[in-house]
Write a structure and sequence with these properties.
alpha+beta; Heat Shock Protein 90; 5 strands; 8% strand; rod-shaped; disordered N terminus
């Protein structure tokens, strides 16, 4: 029997079908050494039995010896052609030659991957041949001794002798064959499980990468909503402050106070956002200060130095939020809880009126209309409606200076709808605010993530319309 390696497969001859380490048809060199030893032993046995065969057949003894050597050495081919070896042993049964050849050949045949029916047929032929030869030889020997042999006794001894020669090697070979198949099936199953685990690991890594991208997108969207709107209003008020500083000091003072309030509100929202991101799921948050505290203090001291300085402060805050987001995304399942807490602490529908008031204070003509009975919704739904209105008004400040705007909220049976529409600009110079082109994309992502619908585009009158419908998720 040849022991195969971990990755070897067995062909129809019982030999590994993978790359062989031994010469010719042997899988290993030690298999070749074993077969050479068995072939030598079989050749010597057959040569010795060839002397007796030569005497009985009345042929020259050297011819019987040569015949025995040739026949016995065919055991060297047992792994290559096991069927031929068994057939040869059956053919030599009348000459009473090749006992080792027959036994090893039957074992090799049963252990190989030849069809089982062929194995049974050849084993039956060997059993029959041995039974006949044993019966004749035993009957002749008993007659030569002067005893009258009884048929049942001769038959019984012949059957026992033939079974003793044929059954053990066949059964052992079948056992080795079944064990080899079991090992192969277990190995294949282990390989399959290993491939499945590798696939699951790859999918888990892909899901983690997807979650990190979603988290980065969400944080970028939040930063855009918080910074863009507040800074846009601050730039508008700063421009108004510059225009009336010498003519109306009282109005300039009010505008300066509004700029300061908006700056503090923006920093407060940023601090709340980054504070949630810095908090680990187990409650072990980072030190309340850190990089954002320093940037926040710098922003507080420099809030009155114009929009350029405020833009730099916003960039610092955005950098801090990005690093915090990377830490938050590493928490796995805790990121969902962080997002839920942030949504619960964020703005709601009740803050839309104040949001409209800020735009009115900046000089925009905005009308707020509410339809239906006001009721509470899920925190994420209310925050999404607030962000849609906030971004739409920010776009009006950027791209339609002097235009009139209308905000409509509709409370329906199973949904809440929001519509922000503005007319054409009055031709006044814009505020010079940069635009990244991500506002509408962020609004659509927010709405579709909750299963809602989002539509935006120009109107026939030359203005712009933003509309969103979100399902009522109060549970």
């Amino acid at each position: 029997m040849t022991t195969t390696g971990a990755t070897e497969r067995v062909d129809t001859r019982g030999e590994p079908a993978s790359v062989r380490a031994g010469p010719w048809w042997w899988a290993r060199r030690r298999s070749m050494v074993l077969d050479v030893f068995l072939a030598l032993a079989s050749a010597l046995e057959c040569a010795f039995e060839g002397v007796q065969f030569a005497d009985e057949a009345r042929v020259p003894v050297p011819l019987g010896v040569v015949l025995g050597l040739v026949v016995g050495s065919t055991l060297l081919l047992r792994r290559r052609w096991p069927v031929a070896v068994v057939l040869l042993s059956v053919a030599l049964a009348p000459a009473e030659m090749g006992f080792l050849l027959g036994v090893v050949g039957l074992y090799t045949l049963a252990a190989s991957e030849v069809p089982r029916r062929l194995t049974v047929v050849l084993a039956g032929m060997s059993l029959t041949g041995t039974l006949i030869v044993s019966f004749i030889r035993l009957h002749q020997e008993m007659e030569q001794d002067g005893n009258q042999p009884e048929l049942w006794a001769v038959t019984l001894f012949s059957v026992l002798m033939s079974l003793g020669v044929t059954a053990p090697p066949v059964l052992l070979g079948l056992y080795v064959r079944a064990r080899r198949r079991l090992v192969e099936s277990l190995r294949e199953r282990a390989d399959g499980l290993e491939r499945e685990l590798s696939l699951l690991a790859d999918r888990a890594e892909e899901r983690a990468e997807w979650a990190r991208r979603e988290e980065r997108t969400r944080i970028a969207r939040e930063m855009h909503d918080v910074v863009a709107h507040r800074v846009s209003l601050m730039v508008v008020h700063a421009a108004a402050l510059q225009a009336v500083a010498l003519k109306d000091p009282e109005k300039a003072s009010r505008n300066a106070a509004l700029v300061g309030d908006m700056g503090r509100q923006a920093l407060t929202e940023l601090r709340e956002m980054l504070g949630v991101l810095r908090t680990a799921p187990d409650g072990a948050g980072e030190r309340p200060g850190g990089a954002f505290s320093s940037s926040a203090s710098s922003a507080s001291s420099a809030s009155s130095k114009g929009p350029v300085r405020l833009a730099a402060i916003s960039a610092v805050a955005a950098s801090s939020s990005a690093s915090a987001a990377r830490r938050a995304s590493a928490y796995g399942a805790g990121a969902a809880a962080v997002a839920a807490d942030e949504a619960a602490d964020g703005p709601c529908l009740a803050d839309v009126e104040a949001l409209v008031g800020q735009s009115q204070a900046a000089g925009m003509t905005v009308e707020l209309l509410v339809e239906g009975s006001v009721r509470a919704y899920a925190a994420r739904v209310e925050q999404t409606v607030y962000r849609v209105v906030q971004e739409a008004l920010t776009n009006v400040h950027k791209h339609a200076v002097g235009a009139k705007a209308q905000v409509r909220l509709a409370h329906r049976d199973a949904e809440v709808a929001v519509l922000v529409e503005n007319g054409p600009p009055d031709g006044a110079a814009g505020a010079g605010l940069p635009s990244g082109g991500n506002g509408l994309v962020g609004m659509k992502e927010r709405v579709t993530a909750l299963g809602g619908g989002f539509v935006s585009g120009p109107t026939d009158a030359g203005g712009f319309r933003v509309s969103a419908v979100l399902p009522d998720r109060t549970g």
